């Protein structure tokens, strides 16, 4: 049986050692390295090319910032975030940067082993609590007026909020001024605003 190679990167020594010890007890798991920073994670990926790299978010060098470099150095490595951070924005950022999953600390050893196997099979692994938060955020965004805007309308509103005129928004987005005016008409209606200033205020409050 071919062993599943694993790297563990976390700046809390006791936690890191505990995770490594727990995983090493699984018959087909082989912990090939540890680290305490984003730089360590990149080095570990480069030198050992583990199947799975468990990576904390909050540590020197930043876990999120290391993801792209890790995958660049070792494309076959699956990055699985193992963190106490329960912010949905952080989860979204990790997934956008290429992480294969997001597991909260406090997970049991059996559940962590299962998450590792699922990630290796190509399944995106997200802790149940974080999945619930994602759904809640998605529903809240869809129900808010700002959530009803199209991607292009959101781009227009971002520039309106910066104080740009329709003409300058058109230049920035490569749109005709009359097209921008059409978008603004739709935006005002969706946001329930009577003018650009009111729309900008509502946009900032709801974004």
UniProtKB/TrEMBL annotation:
Domain HTH luxR-type: 142-207
MF annotations from Gene Ontology: DNA binding
Classification via InterPro entries: CheY-like_superfamily, NreC/VraR/RcsB-like_REC, Sig_transdc_resp-reg_C-effctor, Sig_transdc_resp-reg_receiver, Tscrpt_reg_LuxR_C, WalR-like
Keywords: DNA-binding, Phosphoprotein, Transcription, Transcription regulation
Modified sites of kind 4-aspartylphosphate: 56
Domain Response regulatory: from-to ranges: 5-120
A Pfam family per the record: GerE
Highest taxon in the source lineage: Bacteria
GO biological process, any: regulation of DNA-templated transcription
Name of the protein described by the UniProt record: Two-component system nitrate/nitrite response regulator NarL
Species assigned in the record: Rhizobium metallidurans
